[in-house]
Amino acid sequence: MTDCQGEGAKSPMEIYENLTDQGEKVRSLKTANAEKAEINTAVQLLLKLKVDYKQMTGQDYKAGCPPSQNSVVPDNGPAADGADDDDTVDPWNVSTTSAKGVDYDKLIVRFGSNKIEKELVDRIEKVSGQKAHRFLRRGIFFSHRDMHQVLDAYEKHKSFYLYTGRGPSSEAMHVGHLIPFIFTKWLQDVFDIPLVIQMTDDEKYLWKDLTLEDCHHFAVENAKDIIACGFDVNKTFIFSDLDYMGSSPEFYRNVVKIQKHVTFNQVKGIFGFTDSDCIGKISFPAIQAAPSFSNSFPQIFGSRQDIPCLIPCAIDQDPYFRMTRDVAPRIGYPKPALLHSTFFPALQGAQTKMSASDANSSIFLTDTPKQIKNKINKHAFSGGKDTVEEHRQYGGNPDIDVSFMYLTFFLEDDEQLEKIRQDYTSGALLTGELKKILTETLQPMIAEHQERRKQVTEETVKLFMTPRPLNFNF
Predict the structure, then answer these.
(1) Beta pairing partners, 163
(2) Pairing of strands 309-314, 94-95
(3) How far apart are CA 452 and CA 32, in angstroms?
(4) Distance between CA atoms of residues 172 and 364, nearest Å
């Protein structure tokens, strides 16, 4: 749906020309150092036009490459790949009918966030003095809120802290759960800043058929996998909601402040709660919001409430923080900034994300090398052709091939990844060979993680999860 319904349907060339003009407008605003709000509004319209253009032509917009006369996608009813369907994305459900996965450009427009452009990636490199993480280079972290403001402050020697989390619903985590922690560790290392990690064991008790004891046990077990990612114990505080809420008056006071400023109608609209949901669910979003404010952690930040927070998370968690950002100025706190990641697809395809409750949809951090190999060979959705002859002739589609998707997350070498893409697309690389590359990438990575986890003792977990000062001066 375009912004000008009353003016009649536009042709691909008209939308292309509008896109070109809007792109020039964005560049002019940036060159003139216009207000950020004005730039963001212009960028949102540019993204909306790109979505409209792709829906009409089936192609991504490219500057200097106008559409051909025959580029209109015929309207033959609902698209087979679900391109015209709305994706379902919320904190509890992620699904799409497209084999390519969620349309993230549409999601940016729908959520009102900002796309991470090359300019921002370059700026992160400049400010941090480090090469951008592969998740940034490859668009795995693709969207943000106020990241430029975080960098502005950092350049003026005003630091920030990181906040991310995990909902512990089972003892074993899968490789998809590692994505925010791999990236958060990189951010902690390059910016040399403290980190708080919230284990929402209370949330899992409210949403799942689990006992409180199970949820708290899962939180501790999951913390071991998180610690095994290599976080600095002197700069990292991991906390269970079931433990910390009762021991930190400052944290609970912030929860209550947030609760007072969000109505029942608002949380129903944001999260889809119904009259039959327990009141624990309705009040929980305030608990996930509270770590966004520095004075929730007096042992780390004292009484300071002005230290900016940056939250790396998957895009499905954004509703919590849209609410948080709305409340923050009304209770005198800075809005948290966010970096959003794409979803890690299930082995069966990108129509949904991995599930910890389906063993065959996921590669777990406890899997043996044999289990990893079998799962990839038996269950990883292929973008290849039905026969070797057809594959050699026509090539495969890496955009829907799960093995290739996984390599974009875990293979560090950009040139090697691009060669794999080209060889698979041309038919030079077969599906079985691609799966073998993925297997040989994941097996040592998971084995090394398992070895690091073995070194995490109960004493180590207790140290990470004990409220204490961190080795950092603001």
Answers:
(1) 196
(2) unpaired
(3) 50
(4) 7
Strand partners, 64: none
Q: Which amino acid is at 124?
A: I
Cα separation, 96 vs 343, whole angstroms: 12
Pairing of strands 94-95, 114-115: unpaired
Residue type, 262: V
Amino acid at position 58, single letter = G
Q: What value does the mean pLDDT take over residues 351-357?
A: 58
pLDDT of residue 6: 38
Distance, CA of 270 to CA of 266 (rounded, Å)? 6
Strand partners, 144: 114, 339
Q: Which residue has the higher pLDDT, 64 or 340?
A: 340
Judged on CB neighbours under 10 Å (0-12, 13-18, 19+), 34 is middle
pLDDT tens-place string over residues 57-89: 767 777 767 776 555 544 433 333 333 456 777
Rounded-to-integer distance, Cα 341 and Cα 317, Å: 10
What pTM, to 2 d.p., does this model score? 0.80
Q: Is the predicted pLDDT of residue 325 greater than 50, yes or no?
A: yes
Query: What is the phi-psi region of residue 363: left when phi exceeds 0, alpha when psi lies from -120 to 50, beta otherwise?
Result: beta
